[in-house]
Write a structure and sequence with these properties.
Length: 73
């Protein structure tokens, strides 16, 4: 099963920007994710097409399980 941490921010245009982090730690909590998101905002580490990131929206772990049903060659 593949798990991704999605850090969701709002940019200057009011649109959402999602940063996907592959292979996150299993023990993430709000207390561990919040400082990282705050640092991303404070250091202006990422720019989006809608401008700078200005607000934290959410952090979520998304898991996906892929099962091959058939393979065609």
């Amino acid at each position: 099963m593949e798990t991704v941490l999605q850090l969701v921010f709002r940019n200057e245009d009011g649109r959402l920007f999602t940063l996907n982090v592959q292979n996150p730690k299993d023990d993430l909590t709000e207390a561990t994710v919040t400082p990282v998101m705050d640092l991303i905002l404070a250091k202006n580490l990422f720019q989006s097409t809608g401008g700078a990131l200005v607000q934290k929206v959410s952090a979520r772990l998304v898991s996906r399980d892929t099962v091959d049903v058939a393979a065609f060659e």
